[in-house]
Design a protein that fits this description.
alpha+beta, Immunoglobulin-like, 2 domains, 7 helices, binds heme C
Amino acid sequence: MTRYVPVMGMLALTILAGCSHHAKPAPALHASAYGSALAVSSGDKQLGTPGAPLPQPLVIEVNDDQGNGVQGALVKFSGPAGVSFNPAAALSDSNGEVSTNVTVGDSSGRYTVEVITTDKKGKEIPLQVNELAAGYQEMLGYEVQKKYCSRCHDPNSTPEQVSNYGNLAVAPHPFDRGNTFNKLSDADLASIISHGGPAMNLSALMPDYGSTLSKADIRAVIAYIRLVSNPPFQAPGMVYATR
Ligand code: HEC
């Protein structure tokens, strides 16, 4: 008879474990502090591969009214269908930072990530971060523009490249300026890139790349410009397709 005792005990434990598992699906995170603002530390505007994790983590900072990092604030991440986060929620560390790995969806394009924390009164503080997934052609375009264009079109200098933007008498536009580039057709863009600024009555400070870049390279740069455009580019073909 004594042999039944441990068996019964184990049965009871199994049932108990089963119940508690259903009651608590995930370890709950409890905020021990609250911030009043969110900011991006690093990892926004990354260019990733569709369906894969972005190369760098997305790091968000929770700050108080004085702009100091807050430890122990709860930060949650969400995004459009197909986007996942590891972790999807976390507490800020001693620098006030939270880090997550973002996996973008299966198609190339822009993915807007929603970041949320709450203040002392329970009011939501939202922040939107844009990430990009580039297909093969757009990724090629990224490489081409990094090599030939960004020194003039990107106002920011990097350790590898000092920007020439500030030295130009006529300012070119960074490629994400949708208000400028969305007004230009693919043919306009190809013409400016192949024949230089004067082809479209623009400054000759915009060089011609018709003999440097192949047609495929130029198409790739245009695909990249369409991808990074903010506000997003609406392809005219999509209108015709629905008619
Ligand atoms: C030496 C500097 C320089 C380089 C390199 C350069 N551009 Fe430009 N680009 C300019 C300038 C300056 C303008 C503005 C011309 C104007 O507004 O009259 C311009 C304008 C343009 C425009 C018209 C929209 C705008 O920004 O005003 C396009 C499109 C363009 N460039 C594409 C490219 C591409 C693609 C490359 C690389 C293949 C490239 N540029 C490389 C200087 C440069």
